[in-house]
């Protein structure tokens, strides 16, 4: 993949990581650590590939309804002894965006792909509707 980008004289590598890179998520120590390592690797790779007009960036989405997140929610419900029926409305609000300043994670951008993004490399961009409290 990278050799093809070098031959073309341009390219984009965009990693979908997690907001846990900036704000670790309680109870997900291994995941937080691995995602932080991916962000660090991307920063290193960005510097190595910049001379070839290849950018490397990370998009940090907020909570997105996936089977993995559903399992995390179920595990937390079991650990706290809360009933799924009582806890589901709280998690649904998080998924639907009512606890995020911009209304949630319904919007996604592709601003790192186009020609105008050629100067953006080695960055981790939170795309989470303002949910992440870290700078």
- Subunit organisation of the chains: single chain
Count of folded domains: 2
Q: Remind me, CATH topology of the largest domain?
A: Rossmann fold
- Percent in strands: 5-15%
Strand neighbour order, sheet with most strands: 1-2-3
Q: What is the molecular shape?
A: elongated
Calculate the mean pLDDT score and round it: 82
Low-confidence parts: 103-109
Q: Work out the helicity level.
A: 40-55%
What is the C-level CATH assignment of the largest domain? Alpha Beta
Radius of gyration: 17 Å
CATH hierarchy: architecture of the largest domain: 3-Layer(aba) Sandwich
**Could you name the CATH homologous superfamily of the largest domain?**
NAD(P)-binding Rossmann-like Domain
| Total helical elements | 4
Helix/strand order: HEHEHHE
Write up this protein.
This protein is an alpha/beta fold and 135 residues long. The protein has 2 domains: 1-62 and 105-130, Rossmann fold, CATH 3.40.50.720; 64-102, no CATH class. The chain is built from 4 helices and 3 strands. α2 links the parallel β1 and β2. The longest helix is centred in the N-terminal third of the chain and has 21 residues, at 29-49. It is elongated and about 55 Å long. Mean pLDDT is 82; it is low at 103-109.
Summarize the structure.
The chain is α/β, with parallel strands linked by helices.
């Amino acid at each position: 993949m990278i050799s093809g980008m070098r031959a073309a004289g341009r390219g984009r590598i965009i990693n979908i990581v997690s907001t846990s890179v900036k704000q670790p998520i309680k109870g997900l120590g291994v995941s937080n650590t691995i995602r932080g390592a991916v962000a660090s690797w991307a920063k290193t790779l960005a510097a190595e590939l910049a001379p070839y007009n290849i950018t490397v960036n990370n998009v940090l989405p907020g909570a997105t309804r996936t089977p993995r997140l559903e399992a995390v929610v179920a595990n937390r419900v079991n650990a706290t002894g809360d009933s799924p029926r009582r806890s589901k409305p709280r998690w649904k609000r998080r998924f639907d965006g009512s606890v995020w300043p911009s209304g949630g994670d319904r919007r996604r951008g592709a601003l790192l792909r186009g020609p105008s993004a050629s100067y953006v490399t080695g960055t981790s961009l939170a795309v989470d509707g303002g949910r992440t409290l870290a700078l």
